[in-house]
Structure formats: structure tokens, C-alpha cells
């Protein structure tokens, strides 16, 4: 008798600490209380829909999942244990599981068929064009001031950072940058004159 009284007192203490939503879920579980279920539905349906929409579901699918979750709440309320989770935690867990189930049922997207790449080897026309462009570039570089051509070769052909060119030549960094900028401007001008 004392054990039963102790269990009731413990349930009474737990009941006092419960949220209104958890009490409503207990009313659904213990008495199939439709009014309590209505309050749960009114509270959780819009929140679940918002969560599912943020999770990537479309509007109609999200509404279907919300209906399914709330139906599960009604039918599985007997499994609810307030000692393990509150109403919100239990209902959101059902929604999360439904969302995962839905994702698993969807067929995997098939990758688009990729076309066969064309040969990476240049054809004769491409080789000839590249040779002509290289010749034009060499002619334009030859017309630059030697210090500009040297700075451009170091920066672009040898891929040396401007600061290292400055260190190697002993010239200030600003001078190196100016030579490169002026060399590029002059090179553009020369290439316009040479190119057909």
C-alpha cells in the first residue's frame, strides 16, 4: 500500500512540474481528451510545418507530414512517458523521424549523363594559333624597355612574387610594381599593333 501511495505522490510531483502541453498530451494518453488534442494540434501544427519547410519540404508535402505526425500523436499517445521527455520533445522526435522516413523513400537522383570530353590534344589549327600568339608576344616584349620586360618575365613567366623580385634586384617594391604596371600597359599597346 505504501509503495502505491509513494508512486502516486511521485506522479503528483511530476504532474505539478509539467508544462501545459505535456499535461494535454497526458490527457490524450490517459483519457483520449479531444479538447487537449485540439490544443496540441493548434500549438504544434504551424511550428512543425515551419520546421519541415525550413528542412526543404515543399508546402503540400510539409502539410501532409504534419497531418501524419499529429495522427501518430493521437494513436501513439499511450507510448508517451513524461519521465523521459516533455510533449514538445516527443512530438518533434516523431516529426524528425517522419522526415527521415520520407527522405529514405524518395528515389535517389540520377546524375545527368556527362558528354564525352573532346580530345585534350590541340589540333593543327590550335597549335598554329598558339605559335602565332607566342611570336606576337615575343615581338611585343622585345619592344619594351629592358627593365620592364625583365620585371614582367620574372612576375608572369617565372611566377615570382613582387616582394621577392624586389629583394633579388635590390629595388624598392613600389618601383617593381610600377615597372610591371607600365610594362603591361605598353605590352597591351604593342600587341594591338602587332595582332591582325
TrEMBL record:
Keywords: Sigma factor, Transcription, Transcription regulation. Signal peptide: none annotated. One of its GO terms (molecular function) is sigma factor activity. One of its GO terms (biological process) is DNA-templated transcription initiation. Residues 40-106 form the RNA polymerase sigma-70 region domain. Residues 137-187 form the RNA polymerase sigma factor 70 region 4 type domain. It comes from the Bacteria. Belongs to the sigma-70 factor family. ECF subfamily. NCBIfam families: sigma70-ECF. This is RNA polymerase subunit sigma. The lineage of its organism: Bacteria, Pseudomonadati, Pseudomonadota, Alphaproteobacteria, Rhodobacterales.
Amino acid at each position: 500500500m505504501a509503495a502505491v501511495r509513494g508512486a502516486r505522490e511521485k506522479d503528483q510531483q511530476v504532474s505539478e512540474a509539467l508544462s501545459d502541453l505535456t499535461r494535454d498530451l497526458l490527457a490524450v494518453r490517459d483519457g483520449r481528451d479531444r479538447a487537449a488534442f485540439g490544443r496540441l494540434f493548434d500549438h504544434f501544427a504551424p511550428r512543425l510545418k515551419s520546421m519541415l519547410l525550413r528542412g526543404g519540404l515543399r508546402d503540400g508535402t510539409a502539410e501532409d507530414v504534419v497531418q501524419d505526425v499529429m495522427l501518430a500523436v493521437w494513436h501513439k499517445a499511450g507510448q508517451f512517458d513524461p519521465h523521459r521527455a516533455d510533449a514538445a520533445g516527443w512530438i518533434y522526435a516523431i516529426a524528425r523521424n517522419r522526415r527521415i522516413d520520407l527522405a529514405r523513400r524518395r528515389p535517389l537522383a540520377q546524375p545527368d549523363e556527362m558528354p564525352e570530353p573532346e580530345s585534350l590534344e590541340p589540333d593543327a589549327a590550335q597549335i598554329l594559333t598558339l605559335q602565332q600568339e607566342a611570336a606576337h608576344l615575343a615581338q611585343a616584349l622585345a619592344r619594351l624597355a629592358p627593365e620592364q620586360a625583365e620585371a614582367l618575365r620574372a612576375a608572369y613567366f617565372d611566377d615570382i612574387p613582387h616582394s621577392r623580385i624586389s629583394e633579388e634586384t635590390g629595388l624598392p617594391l613600389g618601383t617593381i610594381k610600377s615597372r610591371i604596371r607600365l610594362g603591361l600597359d605598353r605590352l597591351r599597346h604593342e600587341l594591338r599593333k602587332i595582332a591582325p
